[in-house]
Design brief:
- The complex is a heterotrimer of chains A (about 300), B (about 325) and C (about 550).
- With about 325 residues, chain B is mainly α.
- Chain B is about 75% helix and about 0% strand.
- The chains are: A mainly alpha (about 300), B mainly alpha (about 325), C alpha+beta (about 550).
- At the A-B interface, helix 1, helix 2, helix 5, helix 6 and helix 10 of A face helix 1, helix 7, helix 9, helix 10 and helix 11 of B.
């Protein structure tokens, strides 16, 4: 920290503010855990409340909040609270699976490129560059419209209602890895010159072992931060896909398709738009705060000051 | 420098060629060709007609044959006709491309013009109230679903306050620049909010990083005034990572344009390409996507050049 | 940082200045129409597209069309040729003519004497002959070649009169609804190389050329993807149109379309391509005063095609149970405020051939259960019915992804069937996949929900005749997607087509509807209604309810003071 800035702030204030900053990350973590638990427990809550999420009641459309329906009902008379929970289940699942997929692929490719270098490095990094250079959204449109049975997936899976969840998660995961790969490659490049790696090599350890035992743990923290930060982006992206009609398909609820479905009712039943919009907003912002907090906690330079 | 540029150009052209085949193949994988859809909407169309039309549009040939035929023509500068519009692809694409470039260009300049000063202010007083406010708004900016933001802006400024048109383009022949500008305000605002947040966050952290460097400490120690230290020394270095991020972000800006164009009924390229893909307009979708890729590649190339300008230590061999 | 503050201040001031500029007061001699689609091309013969025919109907006209009361009328001709008035004559087909029809018909038509293209050139028989040449040419890229090929020969009597020799005598022998004329004097050059015609047509290379149009308005400006401007055409032979300018704006997102209507940026949302019904109903609740709402239920038949090759759906009792099991009346009443009539067969209640004494399926869960029990699906396990072999009563219901109205209906039906122990799974696809492959190649495993749009008294040959089942062998021709085979229905369709006597035809139609409602190759849901939202000052708009747009009467539209 520069003297000029330090002069204007007392040490105590600085500490307090740093604490506040981490408290924000902690609060975000708590909120996300609560959301995840509530979403995971959706079937239990549904059973306890006795209002099945699929049961439509045309005589009770767009009902205001009540004891039986804490957030009212949607345009088909279904309990909106339970639908929000189920929507969270799907949105969080998609985001986590996609983020972890991207992380795994990216880490593997980054490790290989950074460790072996040479032609393999050049090839893999050009591949990463091309994936980044692809205009994402139009390509996703193309990918989402392809008949999955032509790719050899089992019919039973393709025909299930939940298939769109896996498709969206897989597509986002498959195009999201290059950023992680670049990160890992960079870190691996500097690691492999370190003494302890050299020593392990001299002792005859295999390349796989060196990468897994010696390099991986040391490049993990930026990867975790990047992955956390990407989760929020994916939740947003899922809502954009839903807006284009290419996301998770009804009757499976996701926050994205609930928000899209309710946009026409924004004048008549604004709360149907506000709830999913708010939850997306809060969740994404929480993931960002969490990622930021993790970054500060895991980045030694950030703590130094 | 020249060698570096040649190499980058060569790579870019290669990438474009590969992309063209990948995209061509992907569009071919999409089920249902345009004639099948035509048969559906026109009960009187006979099977013989369908086959005749397919032959006419060469849809009965295998995909690689069609691609090679297309690529051969494209090399001579003939990108073919849009099937749906019945016009040369470039004629259809041109006006839309210009409109999207206007939209994206203004939003981009605004976003950078806001992000740099705001990022600097936040970095100069980290963990101050200003910093927290900036932090909160930038996080908020990257946490809003884009179409939701667009709808809220339309509700507020067009319907409630009646200040601004909800997008579109003026249709009177005598519309002045002011009228054009008024129609652009909301779409530009939406795109700006979407990208300014990310830029500001990077600007802030890059600036803080730069201010930690030894030579900045030296500059302070020499008693140089704040604005000179920040603007002359730190900013240059802080801009390098920002340029990378912006270049990588070009693709995102493009998808943001699709949503914005749809919500504001703005006749731009994002919407055109989307419709072309959905309407199975091979040539148009293909050339449109290649143009989008080209934009990103040019963005990356410019970023590389910007490095050289910003950091003399980077030399191109 | 003072400079920064200055910069921000200037920015804010600039935005405020732009925002505060005066709004142009919309004059009543201008009408801005909002629709949800932009026409990709403007040639009337190439590819049918609703947005295109909506706009073209203001600028040009087919020779005949159905009016708002679904009666066939002349638009460009002077007298409708009929056998009674002698302008239509039955004639024998040439001996070498192939096909199932024995008799042909000769139609003598006179074009309106005052009809002139916008550049002053008269509309003549030569245009008719040219249009026919383009239409039937195998390489011209025209969609509906079949309609043109039925015309064997055209005899030109004089500049305005000609005789068409048609190769079949059907009850609708005198409808020339698909005959939109092309201006020979502008298009002949473009047609010199037929295969290039679709890329050279003046309609797309020079859309604002006045010589392309003879209707009440003509297209004067096109901004691709955004809007089309029309202004009165001085050569128009009918009543003088009211508006100095009509602007058709395309706004694809319906929420944004509604916002534009609220903000006054558009005056009128067309029903043909406008808001969804539930959206319009919600809008009406708060805006009764400023707008007129017209709901026109029409010839858009929403239904669920059942794949009759599916072992479960082969059993007629199951098909009937499916229909008894859903509450279409409540669905229509609650979701669509009763604006869409429940369908009992594929024939619209407003069509004159509709029959009333056919089986109807009011909501009756008890009966549905009894039918399912009788069909062997009696053992309920985990909420789902099973048959003697232990198979589940599970069906897949598909429709177009992203069509919200259909998705809502689909979820209601799914919920109602689920209560009867029928495990219905929803799987939706983008329209181009759904129609381009799944439905047209009969790849849907059980149920496919979509709509047929038709003209009045349209014979269901392509959808119900057993020769129209799409298969690999016939290259997936035909639209009998259910795989329905019924000798009686085949015979009825053949008879209806050539029966000229209205009373007899009505009987045949009644029989057809009875069989349809008994056999249920498809589950009839309802006839879709289109919401027209007019500003209260706009008068004269009359929704048609059939596939021909209301703009065919645009000259009657006016602004009340």
């Amino acid at each position: 920290m520069t003297e000029a800035v330090l002069r204007s702030e007392s040490l105590g204030l600085l500490l307090w503010r740093r604490f506040l900053k981490h408290r924000l990350a902690i609060a975000s973590a708590v909120l996300l855990i609560l959301l995840a638990v509530a979403s995971a427990a959706a079937p239990l809550i549904e059973a306890a409340m006795g209002t099945p999420s699929w049961e439509t009641d045309l005589m009770n459309r767009l009902a205001p909040p009540s004891l039986a329906h804490p957030l009212g009902t949607d345009e088909l008379g279904r309990d909106y609270f339970i639908r929000m929970l189920y929507g969270g289940r799907v949105s969080l699942f998609v985001a986590l699976v996609a983020a972890v997929t991207a992380m795994l692929i990216g880490t593997l490719i980054g490790l290989l490129a950074g460790y072996y270098g040479g032609v393999l490095d050049a090839l893999l990094m050009r591949l990463a560059d091309s994936v980044i250079a692809l205009p994402l959204l139009p390509l996703l449109i193309v990918l989402a419209a392809i008949d999955p049975t032509e790719l050899g997936l089992p019919d039973a899976l393709v025909r299930s209602e939940e298939f769109s969840i896996y498709r969206v998660a897989a597509i986002i995961g498959l195009v999201g890895w290059p950023r992680v790969a670049r990160l890992v490659r960079g870190a691996t490049l500097s690691m492999r010159e370190r003494e302890f790696v050299r020593a392990a090599e001299a002792l005859g350890a295999g390349a796989g072992r060196i990468m897994a035992v010696h390099i991986l743990p040391n490049v993990l923290s930026p990867v975790i931060v990047a992955t956390t930060l990407s989760v929020g982006g994916i939740i947003l992206f899922e809502s954009v896909l839903s807006f284009l009609g290419l996301g998770v398909q009804p009757p499976v609820a996701s926050w994205g398709n609930m928000l899209t479905g309710a946009q026409e009712l924004i004048w008549d039943a604004p709360m149907l738009v506000v709830w999913p919009g708010l939850l997306i907003f809060v969740t994404v912002i929480a993931f960002n705060f969490l990622g930021d907090g993790l970054n500060d906690a895991l980045d030694p330079r950030a703590i130094e000051r | 420098m020249t060698r570096f540029l040649t190499q980058r150009l060569f790579e870019s052209v290669l990438l474009l060629a590969v992309m063209s085949f990948v995209v061509y193949g992907l569009i071919g994988l999409m089920p249902g060709d345009p004639i099948d859809i035509l048969v559906m909407s026109n009960p009187e169309l006979t099977d013989e007609d369908a086959r005749r039309l397919k032959a006419l549009l060469r849809l009965d040939e295998p995909i690689h044959a069609r691609y090679l035929a297309w690529a051969g023509q494209a090399l001579t500068g003939d990108f073919g006709y849009s099937r749906v519009h019945g016009q040369p692809v470039l004629t259809v694409l041109g006006p839309h491309l210009v409109r999207t470039l206007w939209l994206m260009g203004i939003a981009f300049v605004l976003a950078v013009a806001i992000a740099i000063p705001v990022g600097i202010i936040a970095a100069l007083r980290p963990y101050s109230l200003t910093d927290y406010a900036v932090n909160f708004f930038t996080f908020a900016g990257i946490s809003i679903p884009p179409f939701w933001l667009a709808l809220l802006l339309i509700m507020l400024f067009s319907v409630q306050l009646e200040w601004l048109p909800a997008g579109g383009v003026p249709f009177r022949a005598d519309a002045g620049w002011l009228d054009h500008a008024r129609h652009l305000v909301l779409p530009v605002l939406t795109l700006t909010v979407l990208s300014v947040a990310g830029f500001t966050r990077y600007m802030r952290s890059d600036m803080m990083e730069a201010l930690r460097q030894d030579y900045i400490r030296t500059a302070w120690a020499k008693g140089l005034p704040q604005h000179r230290v920040v603007l002359n020394h730190a900013l240059r270095n802080a801009l390098i990572p920002l340029v990378t991020v912006i270049a990588l972000d070009f693709g995102t800006l493009f998808s943001g344009a699709l949503i914005t164009e749809t919500m504001f009924a703005y006749p731009g390229m994002g919407k055109l390409i989307y419709d072309a893909i959905m309407g199975n307009d091979y040539n148009l979708a293909l050339v449109g996507l290649l143009f989008a890729t080209l934009l990103i590649l040019v963005g990356n190339l410019l970023a590389d050049l910007a490095y050289g300008w910003l950091d003399p230590r980077i030399s191109y061999r | 940082m003072r400079r920064l503050r200055q910069f921000i201040f200037i920015l804010v001031a600039a935005v405020a200045a732009v925002a505060g500029a005066p709004r142009a007061e919309a004059a009543k001699d201008e009408l801005v129409i909002g629709i949800t689609q932009f026409p990709a091309n403007f040639n009337p013969l190439i590819e049918a597209m609703l947005a295109k025919s909506y706009i073209l109907a203001m600028a040009t006209r087919p020779i005949t069309s159905f009016d708002k009361d679904w009666a066939l009328v002349c638009l460009l001709c002077t007298t409708l040729p009929t056998i009674e008035n002698g302008l239509a004559e039955i004639e024998d087909l040439p001996p070498d003519h192939e096909g199932p029809y024995k008799k042909g018909v000769a139609l003598t038509v006179s074009l309106h004497p005052e009809a002139r293209w916008g550049d002053g050139t008269p509309v003549t028989s030569a245009d008719v002959v040219f249009t026919w040449e383009v239409g039937r040419h195998p390489q011209s890229g025209v969609g509906n070649v079949e309609g043109f090929r039925r015309i064997l020969r055209i005899d030109v009597q004089d500049d305005k009169t000609f005789t068409l020799h048609v190769d079949r005598l059907t009850f609708d022998y005198n409808s020339l609804n698909g005959l939109w004329l092309l201006p020979a004097h502008l298009e002949r050059e473009a047609f010199r190389d037929p295969i290039e015609y679709r890329n050279r047509t003046t309609f797309d290379t020079d859309t604002t050329n006045p010589g392309l149009y003879f209707g009440p308005y003509r297209i004067t400006a096109v901004e691709s993807g955004s809007h089309v401007v029309l202004e009165p055409n001085p050569t128009w032979y009918g009543p003088k149109p009211h508006f100095k300018r009509i602007v058709v704006r395309a706004i694809t997102n319906t929420a944004a379309l509604e916002a534009n209507l609220r903000s006054g940026a558009i005056d009128y949302v067309a029903g043909e391509l406008g808001l969804t019904l539930d959206q319009a109903l919600a809008f009406e609740k708060r805006n009764r005063a400023a707008f007129t709402f017209l709901y026109k239920a029409g010839l858009v038949y929403e239904h669920i095609d059942l794949n009759l090759d599916n072992p479960i759906l082969k059993d007629r009792r199951v098909r009937q149970a499916l229909l008894y099991g859903i509450d279409r009346e409540t669905l229509v009443a609650q979701l669509f405020a009763g604006r869409q009539p429940v369908a009992h067969s594929s024939v619209n209640p407003l069509d004159w051939v509709v029959a009333d004494d056919i089986p109807k399926y009011a909501h009756d869960p008890a009966r549905a259960k009894a039918l399912l029990d009788a069909a062997g699906w009696s053992r309920i396990e985990g909420g789902v019915r099973h048959n003697g072999q232990g198979e589940r009563l599970a069906l897949t219901l598909m429709t177009t992804a992203g069509n919200r109205a259909r998705e809502l209906v689909q979820q209601v039906l799914q919920s109602q069937w689920r209560k009867l122990g029928i495990d219905v799974r929803v799987r939706n696809e983008p329209a181009r996949v759904f129609f381009g492959q799944t439905v047209s190649q009969r790849r849907f495993p059980a149920m496919a929900m979509f709509a047929w749009i038709s003209s009045p008294e349209s014979v269901p040959r392509t959808t119900l005749h057993s020769t129209m089942i799409p298969t690999q062998e016939n290259n997936f021709a035909g639209q009998n997607y259910t795989g329905f085979k019924n000798a009686q229905v085949d015979a009825l369709i053949d008879q209806i087509e050539v029966e000229l006597d209205r009373a007899k035809r009505k009987q045949l139609w009644a029989e057809l509807q009875r069989i349809y409602a008994t056999e249920l190759p498809a589950l009839p849901l309802f006839f879709r209604a289109n919401p027209y939202i007019l500003p209260s000052w706009l008068k004269g708009v009359e929704p048609t309810g059939h596939q021909f747009p209301s703009t065919l009467r645009v000259e009657a539209w006016r602004a009340a003071p």
